[in-house]
Amino acid sequence: LSRHASFGTSAKTAQCHSPALPPPVGMMLRLLVPSLLAVASAAELYSCDYGANLTVTFGDYAVNCGTPIPYATAHTAPAPSIAFADADLASSYVVAMVDPDAPSPDAPTYREVRHWLVGNVAGAALRDGASPFVDATTLSAFLNPAPPAGTGAHRYVQLVYSQPGGPIDFAPVAASVMSFNVTAFAEQYGLGVPIASNFFKTAYEDTATVVGDLESISMA
Q1: 21, 77, 109, 117: most buried by Cβ count inside 10 Å?
Q2: Which residues of 20-30 are buried (b: 16+ CB within 10 A; e: fewer)?
Q3: How many Cβ atoms sit within 10 Å of the Cβ of residue 186?
Q4: Are 89 and 123 in contact (CB under 8 A)?
Q5: Separation CA 114–CA 184 (nearest Å)
Q6: SS3 122
Q7: Do the beta carbons of residue 71 and residue 202 sit within 8 Å?
Q8: Could you tell me which of 143, 145, 142, 141 has the C-alpha nearest to residue 75?
Q9: How far is residue 129 CA from its own chain's centroid?
């Protein structure tokens, strides 16, 4: 299968001194605030806010933070070329592509649809954009975007994570690509937040040649 906003506030600082919080309350706030920050930063995941050096080429299109790609291309082209110029030649990486807008941006009850997941990508291969990545661990083969008719443009987000401990013996992922959670996956293997990201948008077009759709994807 394969949409967030930011805002700011300003306020005058009150010239007063608040009483110290009782220890139990203070402890609760210290535990709660980091969690709130983690939730807030999750909205940045489906954007270009994690790194600006991820070069993605899909078909004949250079992807740049929301580039619209015709359905006929997105639905049939081979896997995109993904390159990260700052990749460490001695390191290993995870490359992921997800659709957070399935089955529709207004009601993304299938969030996320996993469109590609490859681990143990060599730094040299990632720097060169040599995808499909050879000698890597393909956890989920590339799945072309297939947003359903009438659901508008979906985002397809490419993410790169560093594997700080080197190569990983990954466990198999679920057979169904629906309701994948790339953040949980990253937490499972200690990958942290993405070090680079990019995304394009694609919407269904009636004139395109359809070779698959939502119903063709495993929902088990």
Answers
A1: 117
A2: eeeeeeeeeee
A3: 18
A4: yes
A5: 13
A6: strand
A7: yes
A8: 145
A9: 18
Residue 32 has pLDDT above 80, yes or no: no
pLDDT above 80 for 89: yes
- Residue 57's CB is within 10 A of a number of other CB atoms, namely 15
Query: Are 160 and 196 in contact, with CB atoms under 8 Å apart?
Result: yes
Name the amino acid, one letter, at 215. E
Nearest to 156 by CA among 96, 89, 88, 90: 96
**For residue 21, pLDDT beyond 70:** no
Residue 189: its pLDDT value, please? Answer: 96
| Type of residue numbered 94 | V
What is the C-alpha to C-alpha distance for residues 35 and 58, in angstroms, rounded to an integer? 36
pTM above 0.85, yes or no: no
Residue 47's contacts (CB-CB under 8 Å, 6 or more residues apart) are 4, 65, 157, 197, 199
CA atoms within 13 A on the CB side of 101: 26
Binning the chain into helix, strand and coil, the percentages to the nearest 5 are: 20, 25, 55
Query: What's the rounded Cα separation, in Å, for the pair 160 and 33?
Result: 27
